[in-house]
Amino acid sequence: MCDSCSRNAANPDQWVASVQVRQKVDHKRTFFYLEQVILKHSAASQAINIKQIHEGVDFFFASRSHALKFVDFLGNVVPVRGRHDKQLVSHDPKSNHYNYKFTFSVEICPVCKDDLICLPQKAAAAMGNIGPLVLCQRVSNSLLLLDPQSLRSVFVDATQYWRTPYKSLLTSRQLIEYVVLDVEPEHTIAGNGKFALAQVQVARVSDFGKNDLIFTSKTHLAHLLNPGDHALGYDLYGANLNDSELDKYKNLVLPDVVLVKKSYEEKRQKRRGKPRPWKLKNLPMEVDVVVKGRTDEDKRINDYEKFMDELEEDPELRANVALYRNAEYGEQSDIGSMTDGEEPPSIPIEELLADLQLEEDDGAAENVDENMEDI
After folding, report:
1. Where are the beta strands (DSSP E) in the chain?
2. Do residues 92 and 107 lie in contact, with contact meaning Cβ atoms separated by under 8 Å?
3. Any idea what DSSP says for residue 70?
4. Which residues are within 8 A (CB) of 43 and not within 5 positions of it... i.e. 6 or more apart?
5. Which one of 64, 218, 268, 372 is separated from 294 by 20 to 30 angstroms, measured CA to CA?
6. Please, are residues 217 and 231 in contact by the beta-carbon 8 Å criterion?
């Protein structure tokens, strides 16, 4: 037998190199995206075991070269930094042969899509004095940061980020829903028509019937928002901000509201619990006992649902994801969703792949057996 077959016959969990992927955030949406990219490119096909633990995932390989190849793949997908170490398992002094176990630690950048960031003064100066309040619009092997007040944007690669690291001022878990009352476009367009500047008047949905607070702010969503629409944003008016980098800006005037994206939550509530016309595949992970729990499972389901909503809203995000047609999606659910006027973004059927499943036909198997008996 070859080395891999003999190793599997003896102990299938025997590994030589492990890659520990970590991200210090309070959600799993980055790992959901990373899982889909790994599946599409079969990057973990050489892994002998995958284990989900707190704050990350461990990948185990039977060869050091396979682990190095996987680490290089991660560096091309998300901004990472890493270190490696090795431990001596055994050695033969006569033949001068040493056996090591290798460990690669990979840390993913803690800044995620839709996060609000206060740039340090050194980093903002290096980017042409952008911001200092910026939104993270996209995460790939580099970060796309956008100033919603001026529509200036800049790409930050992993080397630039880890030279002057910074954390998010507010994360997507702190988004608040607003109602758009008025929109006054300023005819300033950037990003090939993806962003347009406007003055908007908004009010918090939770304030309806309680007070008459109305906020005025600039936004980059002029091409998407109309009076009466709902939008998700950060409430800087009522937020308790405790950030050392923000305190260094003495004369900085913070806006009351920073809108992030248009909200379709009210329309999505009508189809919650119904199957989607598409589905995703998952890696065969072994879940650690410490991770299992009712609270953690509810958070994971909520994060996974938000990740699927992001795939429907962002065509660039799902360009690296393989989507499959859902056989459980029937005509009845399709008819029910078409009766509610304007619908939230959905994925065109042309982008879906057919889920190929090979099943053995019992009748054909019996015919083959009969033919073999005749022979």
Report:
1. 17-22, 47-53, 56-61, 80-92, 97-108, 116-118, 133-139, 142-146, 153-157, 168-170, 176-190, 195-204, 215-219, 230-235, 257-263, 278-279, 286-287, 324-325
2. no
3. H
4. 37, 70, 73
5. 268
6. no
Q: Give the model's pLDDT for residue 84.
A: 93
The two beta strands, 47-53 and 56-61, are antiparallel
CB under 8 Å to 225, separation ≥6 — which residues? 180, 183, 198, 200, 219, 231, 259, 262
How confident is the model over 245-279, as pLDDT tens digits?
888 888 888 899 999 999 888 777 777 767 788 88
Residues 6 or more apart whose CB falls under 8 angstroms from that of 360 comprise none
81 bridge partner residues: 107
In the block, tokens 């499959």 appear at: 324
Q: Could you tell me whether strands 195-204 and 176-190 are parallel, antiparallel, or unpaired per DSSP bridges?
A: antiparallel
Tell me if 282 sits within 8 A of 36, measured CB to CB: no
pLDDT for 335 equals 36
Whole-angstrom CA distances from 200 to 121, 215, 227, 231 are 29, 8, 9, 11
**C-beta separation of 285 from 300 below 8 A:** no
What is the model's pTM? 0.83
Q: What is the DSSP letter of 165?
A: -
Strand ranges in 16-79 using DSSP code E only, listed in sequence order: 17-22, 47-53, 56-61
In angstroms, the first-to-last Cα distance of the chain is: 32
Count of alpha carbons within 13 Å of 358, Cβ hemisphere only? Answer: 0
Cα–Cα dist 232/151, whole Å = 18
- Convert the pLDDT of each residue in 172-230 to its tens digit: 889 999 999 999 988 777 766 788 899 999 999 988 878 888 999 999 998 888 999 99
Find tokens 């704050």 and name the residue: 55
Q: Calculate helix-pair angle for 29-41, 294-313, nearest 10 degrees.
A: 60
Query: Among candidates 139, 119, 117, 137, which has minimal Cα distance to 129?
Result: 119
* DSSP secondary structure code for residue 23 in this structure: -
